[in-house]
Fold these 3 entries.
Entry 1:
Amino acid sequence: MKVAPCSLLVAVSVLLIALGISLMAQRDTVLPSAGQTASAGEVAEKLLIPPPLRDLGKDYKVRLVYFVPSDREVKPGYQKKAGILMRVVADIYRREMQAHSHKTRGLDFEFDKDGRIKVHLVQAKHPSVFYTGEPFNVDHLLNSQQQEIWETTGYSRNRPTLVFSEAGAVAEARPIPHIYSGLACVSGDIFRDEITASTIEGQIRHFMDATTVEKVAGTEKRPRNKEAQTSNGVLIHELGHIFGMLHDTRDSRNIMMRGYDNLGQMFDAKTAGERPVRFSAAHARMAAVTRFFSESFEKSDTKPPKVHEFKLASPAKAGEKTVKIAINMTDNKGLGPLVVMQRGGGQIDAFVKDLDLQGEIEYSGILTMKAPRPLVAGQPLIYIMNVFDVNGNLSQSVINSSVVGTQLKKDAP
């Protein structure tokens, strides 16, 4: 049958419209509830789904451990749920590195032979109280778990370990820079169905679902979206400490503050482009130079920067907001980024300085730190500095001091 030119034009137009709709459906991921089809409202949401994890073949990988004391039960589905959580974690790191123009393939993890993310199940020798101490002691918890984890999984060189622990509710991290490792510990209660879904689509739905659930490792009620966002976001935050990041209170959106409480906004196409949850430029720079993100480093260089001097240039004085610190450091291959955090001075964990030394062999000078509020006489004042070299070796230095002077008395009424 011969088609008239006008009919042919109509047919082509219909075909192009159909093709366009098909491409849009492939680009935007819709998350209908289980067993339901997507409604018009759900289509409009256009939620973003993190891509699957794959083995990147790196020598420096994150190790996952599920630590279960003898008086606790293994939660079903923990391996699959750990993989779901890490898809979110890896996606945020990758996107934030890209946002700050750092070229990296992102985080790598250990994988089983069948291609699934590997989670080491450590069925511990002792009951929970052995690891938590009585009363609770966080250092004892980390030390005792780490020792038994190493006995079970092997020494963690090149393997920072993220531990999901059934021993106690804690979110802590401790870098071990000389072996490119560390221990980050969170509660294993995160594996509850109410908090972590068994599919990535379900997990993103959790970020948007206000149904009331019990908090992780607690009995207090909280909306599921709040609890799922916070618990998944804490994983990103604690790993950040392993990668040299310190707390950063300058912007409420910062992951190294509490920006992760709004993690779900990063998976809503309407808000994700604004980066409502983010790493600061200084912290993205720190992560990018580590061996877990860097794509170019000299593996034979294992010497961290030498910090020859890190001290107050003059006493910190009451009523002032600035403190001067004398610093001198060297590195045989070149210095990289540094960050400094202040504890005390009217605000806990205030980020006060960052530099990128861009491969300088030696740096010496006076750095001016601006406290967020005037200093108070007699107040303990602590400065913590993390500095990398260009090959991902980390050094940390600490100043312990107190503010001098007398506090001005308020006028009597």
Entry 2:
Amino acid sequence: MADTDPTGPVMDRDEVDRALARLGAEHEAIETSLLALQDHAGRRLLEGARLTGLTEQRWSATEASITLLWAYFDAYTDAIRTARDIRARRRWSSREDLVELTELLRGEAVTVPGSATAAAHAQTPDAASGRLSERYSLAALVNRMNELYAASLDMVVAADAVWSALPARIDLLAAELQRTSRLAHSVGVRPGEHPAGDDLERITRTLTRLREQVVSDPLAFWKPAEGSSAPGGGRPDTTVYDREARALEDVRREIDAVLTVRQDAEKRIVRLRDLLSRADRTLAEARTARGEVLAKIAATEVPVVSGPPTALQEQLSTAAEYRRHAQWHRLSPLLESLEQKAEDELLRARESLTAVTAPLAVRAELRGRLDAYKAKAARHGCAEDPELVERYEKARRMLWSAPCDLRAAEQAVLRYQWSVMESLGVSPRVPGQGLPGEGRGQGA
């Protein structure tokens, strides 16, 4: 009957001894693993923590699995002890002993009371069926324990990894946040008054909430590794932490900029005063030049010169007021805007002066050209030619009289220029155009 048993042929004494040796080694390894799980820091933290969310659900199932693991292990231990006792009855085991050992070592001879699984609330088909007991072979029981152990260890390691990584980093960031907040307050960056102050307040709320969530529900911040079946395969999810760290870094840069303003404010305000003063003087010079041009140059459109930059002066006074009251967060953007506007204002004033004095520059160029051609005529001995003298004097009277008609004076200078060239035997160019290569200071 034993030969036809589902467990297979009856084991001999050597097979029994080898099986018991193997089971003993497995028992020792399983016990070591269970004790390590029992002493795991993550498991102890989970037992004492007030959990919420996903972690609370999974820890409830994991606690049941650990309880069931020990129940399985106790049944496994009892089965091995019973097998060893049977083997120890006689030096040479009888046929009946070998049949009993074969059934125990290979058959479904291990019974786990249903009360153990029910008490553990294990989520297994057997437990759900409400059976009074469960029967396993030793091999099946080892496989079942390995499955429960891997799932339990995975949960414990994941929670411990999040707790080991995130709270400490959050605390460090919170300490940096406090230092930044104190520094921001010292330079007037406060919530409701400056965007950076609002950002600091938001980051503070987010970090406080994040730490509470990480402590109570660490598994909500765990990313399992794709394709990995090893317990604890994955990494903490630091997405929220990283975002707030970047936001704090941006705020720090803004605070640094405000601190730079506090250190350089006086120098920058003095430079702004100088720029606006130079622009004002240039505009005053342009207004004076415009009056001179209108008096000395006829039939010429002279652009109107605007007044001094009073709006910028008012903003500069506001900047000085901000500095006196240490309102650095307001001074910083105002100075940046003023510096660009002051540069633009000085450039505009210089362009206005250039546009206003353009007619005077044209008159000066014509005077220089007239004198240059007179000198050329004198070098070639024809300066006393009556026609040249007449044309020279006519052009000179036009250029040195006020108001000066620039168009008529330019034509008079050109006629004198052509006459000089004809006297030197050079054919003049098309009327209305100067000769190539000729201009103020032209030599022979």
Entry 3:
Amino acid sequence: MKRVLFITYYWPPSGKASLHWPLKMIKYLPDSGWKPSVITINEDSFSTKDESLLAEIDPSLQVVKTKVLEPFDLYRTFLGKDKNSPLIASETISLENKGLKHRLSIWIRMNLFVPDARIGWYPYAINEGKKLLNREKFDAIISIGPPHSTHLIGMKLSKEFGVPFFPVFIDPWVDIIYYKNFKRNKLTLALDNLLEKKVIKQSTKTIFVTQSMLEDYQKKYSFVKEKSEVLYWGYNEDDFFSLTKNRTDGTKTILHAGNIFDYQNIIPFWNQIKKEIDNGNKLKLKFIGTVSSLIKQSISRAGLDACVEYCGFIPYSQVPQEMLNADYLLVCATEKRHLPGKLFEYLRTGNPIIAFGDDNKEIDEILRTTNAGKLFNYSDSAEDFFRFTSQFKTNYDVIKTFDRKYIASTLAGIMSQSVRP
């Protein structure tokens, strides 16, 4: 059996959503002749913990955990927070907070940490990675980003030991969306671009989880076209096949699962929901995950306080049932390259999907192909959505191609093409 080394910052019991893709690839790759091992950190002090994800790990899986210089411990101290206090992602980059310490901490994060605040893991991961590769033979290395500093680790180990290297881009690197409204100095940007280009150029193949991200990088770097693949985020069929929809009291629930940030505020839609309720349509909003304070304020201003439920973080094992129980599923793309991972799980439920995203042709195409919902611009109220929900009849033949078992087999094929005889 061939062997692949995964380099991933996040690992259970971290509840970080971006670890679901590598977690399922690791689970299913042995079915295609690839035995995974993992290098990760000993503890993630930022993300909310989800103990239920520990059940996904095969006891025989080799997991090497290393020390890490975690900047968020210093961040808590700087802001006067208790060292064990939770951090909310939407608040750490909020534009609403005008406090001097908050603004200074953002400037430091955007300009002094290159490529990101997890670069402190690099020396520890390199040290343990060298020990592992000196002892054992691997046929491929996969790094998962963000944080994109993991790609620097993968590139270094690949070059030193002559192992094919496959960086996986779950989000863009230099111009990831949460940099959009923040200033980064020219030197920082130049260095970040240099590192990004170097990683992609030295990769065996770069994996993107959206077609639009791939196309964007092809415009930026001409050499990307010959050494890249798209493997969608997908969903896990095993999480859904035994579930049944629970009956409700007649009120229709609009569910948003996952974090939602200031820049995803759909004010016309909140106002439209209030109009629908005033006209007799029994609706309620439900949020699983963190919700930015700005969005909560907008929902309150729309007069929806009595019709909204903020559940906060819940174990992922409970999330598919919540998605299935909902009547409508809400997703907000941050930009035209953004294809939220939750969309694929939404598709699997068969519930109508209401999506927001300016100029996001990829989401629009997927929703049209699967007949699962409709995409609107952020300036739209989406009034039409509630008039035509009965027309959405999900095409499960298309959706089955997004099962992560199928995606893992494709990934195995991509790696096998690069293995030396």
